[in-house]
Amino acid sequence: MTRTDRMHLGMIVLGAGNHVAGWRMPGAEFGSENLPLLQRIAATAERGKFDFIFFADAVNTGIDAHPGMMVRLEPLTLLAALAVTTSKLGLVATVSTTYSEPYNVARALASIDHISGGRAGWNVVTGSSPDAAANFSRDKHPPHAERYAMAAEYVTVVKGLWDSWEEGAIIGDKASGTFVDPTKVHVLNHAGPYYRVKGPLNITRPPQGYPVIVQAGASDTGRDFAAATAEVVFTAQQSLDEALAFARDLRSRARSVGRPEDTIRILPGVCPIVGRTMADAKAKIAELARLIDPVAALKVLSDRLGQDLSSYPLDGPVPEFPPSGMMQGHATVLQSIARRNRMTLRELRDYAAVGAGHRLVFGTPEDIADDLQHWFESGAADGFLIIPPYFPGPADEFMDEVVPVLVRRGLFRAEYEGSTLREHLGLARPSHPRGRA
Ligand SMILES: Cc1cc2nc3c(=O)[nH]c(=O)nc-3n(C[C@H](O)[C@H](O)[C@H](O)COP(=O)(O)O)c2cc1C
Q: 128 CB less than 6 Å from ligand 1?
């Protein structure tokens, strides 16, 4: 398997903390609309020389939801604000393809790429919650396969729009009065099953050519889509064997659609709990568990499994469900961990509360570095999506205590070597289809 020499690290930021009760911890500062806090978190990630920070999103909410997901700044707006207080850090956000138009999104992401000097990334999701439909004048959420078919066409349209302007199209020659070379500006004239878009886009080609495309689906269809489209893949695998199988499968699907192996970075999510000792780390986990709001935690698990769990006995086994069409990837890994560890519904609820269903890694900085190194060197991961349980403490601890261990071991950069997100990730800049990049 072709690998990068060093890990790639990103961080998921939910202003109220990723752990469902993180905001209640002593020292936690919270607020998904708290720009000064979010700017400090971004500065922390940049201090740790992270590849990027990432803001997840949805276009629906509920008052029983995870506090970090209940209310939040619209992420592309937020990225624009963070672009001016950071200089190297990649800036990645989710935008749903089911509930937006490609022209608007191509334009907004191109704007962020220009504003940030080439640091934008787009997590392409099809939107797992059916509740979003009612916010967009729709009677129903499109089925899973149709959402992915829409997404595939959508990404093609967005890329086509990003190619509207060849490099050098704006001449700006004061003497002749020639502003633009019209031969370098192209209409798209896309007409497909879901979208009809003429173009051109009203912004020039993004500095990165295309902002980095991220994807996090894990169903069969989701994997095919990721293999064809994604440059970074987020996953929620809980065991090394499952992660290895996932990485092999994704890379083989990518090969079968003609993509070179080193064009995808697979980043499993991990929630690190850093302690002075293993006992200290375990005490922190216990304290977080004690603060969990059972209703919010069960809602997080219900969303992950795609079923309303409120009527099942908490001390009974985790019910087995067929694929839901919601978050199939999360559902599969969580059900497998419950089966492997013979967990009750209550135990799985508390486990999923920690990092919204991602893997928990805990212990001293060396213990955590050992675990990440093992996954990285075994080929299960090209790096990790770090999911601090709350902010700012655990994010600072990761940067100041775990990152230096990774750097000393030669596993992570000590300084940024490039300035765009593509350069951090070691991904090539896509040339313009007319060969003029
Ligand atoms: C790390 C990670 C982050 C995700 N972020 C989002 C998000 O911001 N919004 C969203 O709707 N889904 C998000 N998802 C869910 C996936 O993008 C995907 O939509 C979901 O798993 C359903 O696709 P699947 O059935 O192919 O697995 C995320 C998943 C993972 C693992």
A: yes
